[in-house]
Amino acid sequence: MTALTPLDRAHTHPATLARTRERIGLITEAARRAGAYVAGAGSRGVAPTADAVAGLGAFGHPLPDSPRPAREVLAELDAFGSPATVVTGHGRHFGFVTGGTDPAAAAAAILAGAWDQNPGAFSPVAEALDRVACAWVVEALGLPSTAAASFNGGATVANLTGIIAARDALLARRGWDVGEQGLAGAPALRVVIGDEAHVSAVKALRLAGFGAVQIERVPTDASGAIDASCFPADTDDLTLVVLQAGNVDTGASDPFAAVIPGVRERGGWVHVDGAFGLWAAASPALRSRVAGVEGADSWATDGHKWLNLPYDSGIVVVRDPADLARAMRTDAAYLPSDPAALRGRGIQISQRARGVEAWAMLASHGREGLAALVEASCMHAALLARLLTEGGATLLAPVTLNQVLVSFGTHAATDAVVAAVQAEGTTWASGTVWHGTHAMRLSVSDAATTADDVAAAASAILECWAATRG
Ligand SMILES: *Cc1c(COP(=O)(O)O)cnc(C)c1O
Predict the structure, then answer these.
(1) pLDDT confidence tier of residue 20, bands split at 50, 70 and 90
(2) Which atom of ligand 1 is nearest to the CA of 274?
(3) Per-residue pLDDT for 11 more than 70?
(4) How does strand 190-194 pair with strand 239-244?
(5) Which DSSP helix (H) or strand (E) runs through 316?
(6) Per the count of CB atoms within 10 A, which of 69, 148, 339, 386 is most buried?
(7) CA 388 to centroid of ligand 1, rounded, Å
(8) Based on the structure, what is the number of domains in the chain?
């Protein structure tokens, strides 16, 4: 156990000393159990067994009448919780776009848990790390160095933040102050998005006051990206365009270079939902996949996906800091509006010190390590696609980034393979419907994934396919 200093012993009330000793013991015990979890999780199935899931019923005992030792509570969490996790961090979880947790970030999260800082109110350390981490993210993504950025709960919140900043900025340029006058009676905005925009962007638009009838959809091509030849040429200064970096099924990005300059020249705003795809910009080798994305007005991305930060972590970046500050200001005597403060750059006031983990991850990987993470994921996705197609699966879209989309014959056959793979445990992938075809989608977004993991996953999938064919 960590020793207390002589000063602590001399100046602390015995009861306080005992409580501090207990806290230290608990944190150490939690870290020990976390280590044991990591040691064991790699050798069990990615999805929890039915027995482990059934064991979760143990948590539902009646709310205790009286206090219990925290150590017992921790043991109970570990006993029933640890076997029932989805193993996201051992390299064979390819579901959704998940990503494991970077070791430096996971370790930083333990320290940050003890720190318990609130960068939305007052915390020099959390504010300093947030400032540096935001600047590093902007730099790594090749976005304008003068842009404002902030961490939040994920790409959906980041999309919402960017879209609200856009809405208020476009209206402000027409002399309409949303803070003062609200939205009723405001000039109508035209919203343009791709046919295959992520549901997160649509949800964010709805939360910002834009319903389906106000949203114009642009057709997409065979890769799932907007077809530039179908993009309206008559957008104006009341137009908000939401583009996508990384189609969630194929990884394809909208044609930024062809679309963004015209929209902005005509006075409109371009927001980019780049939850995972924006990270292609962090690799010199892959940057061309999102060419021109840096020309937009605002960007949303995730830390908890491809950057391998712990949940939850999203990032919004807005080209003109004044546009973010206008939309996110807080005016109160005890929380003065301050565009430099976190509460002035995002929706939340109190919040987790997400910059701590981001700083640790980026400090540990550096520019080259980050590029290597992105490139290795894409290389492993290509390998996965090759092994599956060599085994007879049909590739439904070219692998341009880290997403793999395959089918196994009929809709029913593909559904059966997805279900069998999820139950078998070696790996985990989810199903989708791609342009009318039932598919398995695999996302390689964890630095832990190795070529061996890919080979093991491909074999397991092909064996499940063989088993379902009987
Ligand atoms: C995952 C994802 C989102 C939503 O991100 P959350 O972090 O889950 O809120 C939005 N857009 C795209 C393209 C995504 O892949």
Answers:
(1) very high
(2) 13
(3) no
(4) parallel
(5) strand 314-318
(6) 148
(7) 26
(8) 1
Query: CA-to-CA distance for 439 and 332, rounded, in angstroms?
Result: 52
CB atoms inside a 10 Å sphere around CB 293: 26
Range of the domain at 260: 106-362
For the segment 351-371, what is each residue's pLDDT rounded down to a tens digit? 999 999 999 999 999 999 999
Q: Which residue has the higher pLDDT, 121 or 174?
A: 174
312 domain residue, yes or no: yes
Residue 48 belongs to a domain: no
Residue pair 162/299 in contact by the 8 Å Cβ criterion: yes
Instruction: Establish if 204 belongs to a structural domain.
Output: yes
Average pLDDT, the chain: 95
Identify which of 157, 196, 200, 354 to mutate to test ligand 1's pocket (most ligand atoms within 8 A of the CB).
200
Residue 276, ligand 1, Cβ within 6 A: yes
Burial class, 156, CB count within 10 angstroms (exposed 0-12 / middle 13-18 / buried 19+):
buried
CATH number, position 265: 3.40.640.10
Closest Cα to atom 5, ligand 1: which residue? 155
- Residues 364-394 have pLDDT tens digits of 999 999 999 999 999 999 999 999 999 999 9
pTM for the structure as a whole: 0.96
Ligand 1 and 154: CB distance under 6 A:
yes
